[in-house]
């Protein structure tokens, strides 16, 4: 069954624990946490302190998406704060294997992510090392943007390589996912769908999650 990862970026930060509880009770599989530094992406969001605060409020895996320059500097802190999956952008990692190994050294699952304009070939050499491949279907930085359909070919390509080489990583998509675009993503091979506004902008989160799934 397709996994759903609500992005708390679209939630009410003043009631974060309740918002997380609401989507957990609504059937979410992961909690997606968007970390932005105002450098790699134009927005600033949350750091390890918030991950540490939300950790006791959910038993779901925390899927932490690092949209930050020099992620190596913060990986230990996020791991110790309670991240279960740490995902780094290929565009921010000149020594990608080293960064992926660093994440794993803390006993955390390692993911790699690429922007819509970055070709699938850019992460081909790391595919056998990762637990998750995240394909951005918007340019990262903000919630509520329109889905970029050109990325569907890339989902298919990554899924084809996974099959060909018996890789075991999950394929996740992030950005502009709603009940319509979700169909194309899963048909192309996505296993995990991140959704922010399509879930948190709805009153009934269970219904929203089920509609996307
Ligand atoms: C975008 C973030 C996404 C964002 C998705 O930079 O990485 O996780 O929260 O939001 P929606 O689902 O509203 O496009
Ligand atoms: Zn994200």
TrEMBL record:
Residues reported to bind substrate: 7, 65, 141-144, 174-176, 196-197
- Name the GO terms of the biological process aspect: pentose catabolic process; pentose-phosphate shunt
Reactions catalysed, as given in the entry: D-ribulose 5-phosphate = D-xylulose 5-phosphate
Q: Which GO terms describe its cellular component?
A: cytoplasm
Name the InterPro entries for this protein.
Answer: Aldolase_TIM, Ribul_P_3_epim, Ribul_P_3_epim-like, RibuloseP-bd_barrel
Kindly indicate whether the keyword S-adenosyl-L-methionine belongs to this entry: no
User: What is annotated as the active site?
Assistant: 34 (proton acceptor), 174 (proton donor)
Q: Which SUPFAM superfamilies match?
A: Ribulose-phoshate binding barrel
Pathway in which the depicted protein is active: Carbohydrate degradation
Q: What is this protein called?
A: Ribulose-phosphate 3-epimerase
Source organism of the structure = Halobacillus andaensis
| Gene name, Swiss-Prot/TrEMBL | rpe
């Amino acid at each position: 069954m397709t996994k759903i990862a609500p992005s708390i970026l679209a939630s009410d930060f003043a009631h974060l624990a309740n918002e997380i509880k609401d989507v957990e009770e609504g059937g979410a599989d992961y909690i997606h946490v968007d970390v932005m530094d105002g450098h790699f992406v134009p927005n600033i969001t949350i750091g390890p302190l918030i991950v540490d605060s939300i950790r006791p409020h959910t038993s779901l895996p925390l899927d932490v998406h690092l949209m930050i320059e020099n992620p190596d500097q913060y990986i230990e802190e996020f791991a110790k704060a309670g991240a279960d999956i740490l995902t780094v952008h290929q565009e921010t990692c000149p020594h990608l294997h080293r960064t992926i190994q660093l994440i794993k050294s803390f006993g955390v699952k390692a993911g790699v992510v690429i922007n819509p304009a970055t070709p699938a070939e850019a992460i081909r050499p790391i595919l056998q090392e990762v637990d998750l491949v995240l394909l951005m279907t918007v340019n990262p930085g903000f919630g509520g943007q329109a889905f970029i359909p050109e990325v569907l070919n890339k989902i298919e390509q990554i899924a084809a390589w996974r099959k060909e080489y018996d890789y075991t990583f999950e394929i996740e998509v992030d950005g502009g996912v709603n009940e319509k675009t979700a169909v194309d993503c899963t048909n192309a091979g996505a296993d995990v769908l991140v959704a922010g506004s399509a879930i948190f902008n709805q009153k009934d989160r269970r219904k929203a999650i089920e509609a996307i799934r």
